[in-house]
Amino acid sequence: VPGSYPGQSSHSTIPAGYKAVHLLDLMHKNFTASFSNTFRDLKHEPTKTLLQKPVIELVHIGTKFKRAINSESLLHITFKNGVVKIPPLFVDDHTESIFRNFIAYEQYMSKPFETRRYVTDYISFMDLLIDSPSDVEKLRNRDIIRHGLGNDKAVSAMFNKLSSDVSIESPFCYDKILEKMREYCSKRPRTRWANIMRNYFHTPWSII
User: What is the pLDDT at residue 146?
Assistant: First the structure.
């Protein structure tokens, strides 16, 4: 496949014998092949209420975000012991159009309970985390997101726009991760204190 796109593997992960119907199908298959193996034996479950907390709020609660090292897929996000590990993403002028084409392909090709919408779910998950440029800044400082768009606001706007025309449906690839994150946040004893400190004492002068 000519050119490069987010998550492109250095080696092909497409199963032997796979026959692509067109170039976009081939690119999408290469993008999702290694990640799709994770869900091969999982049962379809109804999507539960989603976690409505952006990165900056999750960080205040105590959740940590780290760059996933040596991940085989951009889509392979994990959560364990309060740590969200996300593979690095580089955003440039072509990223939005590539993701938009993948999402359109999934909306057209996917059938309920037959095909998972891997890219659509990834964008929806990232949009849950990214609510403002400050959230992008947090991820950029952790080397999870890098970009050449000039400012973090452009990256935030990209994720918000990409997810504006799609809905989260069952089965959702990151439902189990969100459930674990909800449980973790609900048990954090510092949650209330963190909110108070952030809202009322965010500078030394306000404490005085």
Answer: 93
